[in-house]
Amino acid sequence: MAASGKLPTFRLPPLPTLRELIKLFRLQAAKQLSQNFLLDLRLTDKIVRKAGNLTNAYVYEVGPGPGGITRSILNANVAELLVVEKDTRFIPGLQMLSDAAPGKLRIVHGDVLTFKIEKAFPENLKRRWEDDPPNVHIIGNLPFNVSTPLIIKWLESVSCRDGPFTYGRTQMTLTFQKEVAERLVATKGSKQRSRLSIMAQYLCSVEHIFTIPGQAFVPKPEVDVGVVRFTPLVHPKIDQPFKLVEKVVQNAFQFRRKYCHRGLGMLFPAAQRLESTGRLLRLADIDPTLRPTQLSVLHFKNLCDVYRKMCDEDPQLFAYNFREELRKSRSKNQNKDSDREHCGL
Where along the chain is S-adenosyl-L-methionine bound (predicted)? Predict the structure, then answer.
């Protein structure tokens, strides 16, 4: 393994520039896919440097597009780079990179939301959860339209220790709209505090490491872009199933400008809402007049622990959906109105 601080032993040979490649293969960013190309290799190099020491690492890149970050990863002297690209237009350009880096780049035409990475890398890379992170990294310039569902999917995988996290506490370095990046790292009391803040921070150490101005991308998006690094925690700050935590957090933040008891009340059927919400907040030791943005991860831990006990007492409670109850109530009222009209009332 190359010693830290030494120059990488592998460098890509001279290749067409990214702009030349885009022209050669007549590539255009698809607006409907929220694609924005990052062509400045100084910035792609910076993203890769911020991911950590990648010498002899195994890297999974999501959404490589024309291959800007791909080039920077290959120049970091990785053992292997696996890229998953959904858009067939980019495959020939990526194949050119593969030919220039024999045995280093593996290309999969597929969807990152469904791709199974569990068996993509050697078994001997796996580490115990308590150990240091494995020599496996996830890096990607994510299309805006998939960034939030993808990070939620991966956070659930962190919770279950499956998918990319079968190898251990795999680190991720990903791009998001700046607003989303700010939500991911927002602290208690911040106006950016949101569902994403809690879901990310109870499972990971999250850092917004730098911002890329929108004009660095082609085409230029209307927003700047934040680069965020995630390192899964050895011990999650909330020790409950992901779906339960997600349900509590989603309900709390659905009325983010109101007192927290308003959203948390939606966890319970209307007939018992007042009594059960009061009990939840009392046992969790939470002031009902706090707003959702004022709740800490510890507050949510207490809420989730108490809600879990309430679900254990009433096995049907977790399946309750207030929107479904509301829909049935409206449908029932509409049927009553229809019957009245039929009777001439």
Answer: 36, 38, 63, 85, 111, 141
d(CA 147, CA 26): 26
* Span 190-224, pLDDT tens digits: 999 999 999 999 999 999 999 999 999 887 888 99
- Known binding-site residues for S-adenosyl-L-methionine equal 36, 38, 63, 85, 111, 141
- For the chain, give the number of residues: 345
Q: Which of 139, 152, 112, 174 is nearest to 54 (CA)?
A: 139
Binding residues: 36, 38, 63, 85, 111, 141
140, containing H or E segment: strand 136-140
What phi-psi label fits residue 168: left (phi over 0), alpha (psi between -120 and 50 degrees) or beta?
Answer: left
Please tell me the pTM assigned to this model.
0.89
How far apart CA 263 and CA 249 sit, in angstroms, is: 9
CA distances to 107, 261, 311 from 316, in Å? 46, 21, 7
136-140 and 171-177 beta bridge pairing: parallel
Which two tokens mark 176? 């998001």
What backbone torsions phi and psi does residue 173 show, to the nearest 5 degrees?
-125, 110
Question: How are the residues of the chain apportioned to helix, strand and coil, as percentages rounded to the nearest 5?
Answer: 45, 15, 40
Cα-Cα end-to-end distance for the chain: 85
The token pair at 159 is: 């919770």
Cα–Cα dist 186/208, whole Å? 10
